[in-house]
Structures are given as C-alpha cells and as structure tokens.
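Problem: given the chain below (691 residues), write out its structure.
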Amino acid sequence: MRWLVGWSSTAASFAGVGSAGATGYDGETLHPVGSQLLWGDPDPLWAVGDWRPDEVRVVKVDADNRIAVLGVCGASDDELRRGLFTARGGALRHLTAWPGSYTAVVKVGRRITVCGDLAGARPVFHTPWAGGTAYATAALPLADLIEANLDFGHLAALLAAPDVPAALRDTTPYEGVRRVPPGHALVLRAGSREIAGYEPVASLAVAAPPADPDHAVDAVRDALVEAVRARLSAPRHVPDLDPGPVPGMGPAERRARRGMPVPGIGADLSGGPASGTLALLAAGLPGRPGTLLGHGTGAGERLLAVTFNDLAVGGREAELERAGALAAGPRLHHVVVTGAEETLPYAELDGPLTDEPGPSLVTAARHRARLAAGSADHFTGHGARQVLDAHPARLADLLMDRKRRHLVRPVAALAKADGSVMVPARVYGAARRLARTPYRAGLEVLAERLMRRRFDEPGGAVGASLAALTWARPGPAARWLTGEALAEVSVLLQGEADRSATGAQRPGEYRARAALARHAADLRVLEQAAEIRSQRLHAPFLDNQVVRACRALPEALRVQPGARASILRTVLEGAGVTGLPPGWGAPSHASSAAAARAGLRVAADPLQDLFASPLLADAGLVEARVIRKALRSAADGEPLPLDGLADLISLELWLHRLLARRGTCWTGTPARARAVPSGIQPRRGALASGA
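Solution.
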C-alpha cells in the first residue's frame, strides 16, 4: 500500500515535527512507519510506502507556497508552479485537469488543499485529531491514529444498500474517519476543515445544450490518448534484479515464482473492447511502449499483452480468439495465463489486509495469477463500463429532456431479448414514473422496502432494467441481514430523506455516478489485495480527464445498444488503429456467475468453517445459521444472488484480517494504538451464537 498522510493543527507554530500534539503517549516523536517527509511543521506531510522516485514531486516557490503531486501526473514542473499560483486565489478545478492519476496537495501559508478525484479511485480521508485535522489517502492510518472502533452502521449500509450514497454518506468502516466525496477537495485552515466541490453543478431548470456526438467522441479519444501517453512518458521502472538462476527454470518462470513482474509496459488483453483499446493505443503510440532493451525478450518496441484463460469454467472461447487476433501484430508480445480450480473465486481465503473491504477480496487470487505474468507498468480496462455505458435509469433522464424518440432502439433491444410485446410499455412506464419521482420519495421507498424485507425483483435482462429504474434499491446481500441491521439502515435513510432537497439531480446521472464510485472503490481494494511487488496497475478510464470527457457524451448516444464498443472503435480509428477482428466488442455470453458458483462449490468446507462463528454475527449484522444455509444452497445451484454472498464473505474475511493484524501505522505509540483495539464485542448475544 502507498498513501500520503499529514495534519493541520490550530497551533500557530511548532518547535519541530512531533511537538504540539504530535507526540506519543510517553513523549515519543510521532510519525508514520516507513515514511519520507515531504515538508515539515507547522503542517507536516509524509509519503508512506514504496513510492517510485518519479511518483513523488514537490515544487516549492517559497517557504509558504508549495505543491506536492503523488502518482502519475503528465504536468511539467512549470505547469505545477502555475497551478500553485492559480490555487492561491482559491481555484481548484485546474489542479485535477492534468493527464494521469494522482493526488495533489497545495500548501499556501496555513491553508492546505487536498484534491480527490472524480471517480473515487484515489480518495481522501480526514478525522479530528489533537485539536486540528489529520488527513490521508488511506483510512486505516487515521483509524490507527485515533484508535477508532468499527462503524457498524457503515458496515450495515455497505451490505444493505452499497449503491446508495445517502446510505453510506461520508462514513468509512472506522468510526470517526470520514471520506471526502468524489469530485471534492479537503480544505484545511489552521486545523479547521471544509469540503469544497470543484466540478460545476448542472441545473435542472434548464436543459443542457445538446452536445455534438462526433466532437464528444473525439474528446474521449484525446483524453484516452493523453492518459496512455502520460504513463508511457514516465521513467521506466526495472523491478528488483533477479537474484540468480534456478535449475530447470527460465527467467520468466523465476520471475513468476518470485512474484516479480516483467520490466517495461504491458496490458490486459481479455478480448473485450476496453482492454483491447488500451493495449492497441499503448502499442501504437510513438516511442517504445514495450520492454526495456536488455531485459526480457530484448525487443524494446513490444508491449506485453496478457490474456487469462479459465480452464475451470469455459464459455470465453470467442474472446480468446479475438485476443489472439489482436495480439498478432509485431508490436505486441502475447502471453496466455491459464488457471484451473486454484484460481476460482473463494479458492484462496488468505491474503493481505486492505484499507477497506470490497467484493474483490474473494477474487484476488484469480487476478494475482494473471498479474504475476504482467509488466512493471500494467494497463487494465477497469472502469470503461461505468464511464461509457448507460445506466438504465438514464432512460428517465431522456424523458425529462423530452427526447422520447431515443428510447426506441434500447427498448426494442430489450423486447427482442425478452420476446414479449409488452416490454416497451413496461419499460416506458417505469422510466416515466422515475422521471416524475423526487429524490426524497425514492429514499423513502427504499427505507420502507428494507423495513418490510421486500427484496424480490423480476429476473432476466428486462427485469434487471426495470429494477434499476429507481432512485435507490436494496443491495444483493440485504436479504440475509438481521431485522435490527435493516431497521438501522432504514432509519438512516429516512433521516437523509428529511434533510434532502426534492429533485436534487437527474436520476440516471445520480445512479451512474454512484455505480462508478462503488466500482472505483472496489478496484482500489483489488489493487491492494492482488498487489505484485514493484508492479503498478493503471486504469486510464478512471482518470479525471477521461471521466470528464465520457460524462460529456450525449445520453442519446449512450443508451443505444453496443454504444461502448462503437465509441471505442471510433476512438481507435481516430488514433490510426484499424483492422479489428470480426466480432470485436460483442458482449460476452460467459457469465462470471458460473465461476463464482463453481468456486462456492469447491470451497464449500472452508466457507462453512469461516461462518461457524462469524464476526458479522458478533456485530449483529447476520445470523450465522442463515448464512451457512445460503452457502449450501448456492453451492447446490439454487438461484441466489451470488454477488450478495460475495459481499458477505469478503466483509467477513476483511474483519478477520483486521483483527488478526499486529502493530500500527505509526511510531511513537504503544502497541495498543491501532484501529479496533478491543476487537468486536458481541452486540446481540442471541444473534452472535447463530442459534
């Protein structure tokens, strides 16, 4: 893990780092473990973890004005300096408009500004501490700092309504540690804090001017090319040197066995449009996008393209063929990684502790098997679906803008998939109801559904679209929560509904941003759980400028069937890449549900042991016998929401890892100064036993 951490105190001056509230219980100097100091008192900032030298940049104008950028940023030092001068006047948006994925921290006198990103992949957290405010890009260090206990209300909302921002609010799994919402910045002035948004807010009173589809797609192309170029322009990183030969093993086998990536640039190549677009863009841009000369194959211009072939669950043969056709060019070196039962979901229940829980914990071993064959800098297509595809609720947005004719093609596609002539009327009626339903009423409906345990939803593609045509819906794991946990989330939603304004924004845009934030948070969990030493994962679709360009796409273009593949095909053509294989961009007919069900069946006994006396039951969120029965039923093939079981299992795994950790993120504190110091005390004895 890598993060930055610092604080802002009310004290006017310090004698040195570690004074005026920055001391341990016995007077020791307090600072993060394994950190490098970027600047000192009165408001210190540290970078913690295995940052590369080019990933940490500090530009200083004078003693009171400086800017730090951590991550991949395409701005030059002169641009950073100009950005610092502009930020002195209070402007923030330009700090988030450079190519790449990074966190910017600006210090102007005693005012500190920390900018989060638009997607939520690089979040910012804060907590009151020592009369001021401590902040970080990870929640666990702040939880250690204040010895935070678990926030059971947040954990309940994470299971009951994970896609509803009103349920999660700005909380984290740690009590007292808060999250800055995506698209906002944390502004600190001598210890006091303020959350400021840096994106313009669209008005509902006046419809936005119609966007030109061609210009919007061109903007997506330009943003993606700049995002890829920012990674290719960064200094190449060579992992730790190979310690020596092993009898019977070649260099690639030694690297994989020792968990070392291949030097240079690589990319996922699943056969889908998102990963294929990034691989072809990276391989086609001028320069040397592949491995370094003298390392690996010695072909400096080739990009390593990695494809995962699941031998345990079939159904992706067409995608594998397309991946092979895409990688046939001379600028790509294709590697196929095979995986059997040992790479199924739930096959490996041990792993590192991540900053927060997420469904990716149950599939981390599956991803790690693929990434172990990857490069030191590895592109992934994560986020493309969330930023390019149309959430079904966007049909209501079109009705609000009186663009009914654009509903014809998506509704016709649903009718064709369902085979019923009643589909158009049902979908149009649901979209019309949503367009006329205020945001407050939507939260109240969800609160009532949770209180009355109403979780049944229609099946199939049409049923999923109809269920999504709401402001908010229960999570897939909500059906297994206790009545007390559901009531707690229901009361919370009622309170949020009372405080909210009616008709805050368009429902489709609201749902799409919430889905993007959840995916970005889970990708962050995946990066930490499947981390390969000396490797960096790059997700350009989640960069600020790419997200902005995708949000400018007309809704009428988004909702058309096959819109994502069509947009990315146009992006590649505009970048000079043609000759895509037949069927490129076709949706996959193989479902991840087959792999999840197979994993549940293979790991049935370890999962039953995990839930013999679960920590979730001690927290009062579930009954152990209910979860054990659901696991048996899912392994036997009953139609249960498998993503809900993934949420439950991943949260239980995360709690076990959190309570099993030793030590803390800080020096100068005794061993007890860590998050959840006393463990989980059973909240309801009857439920904790699972009887």
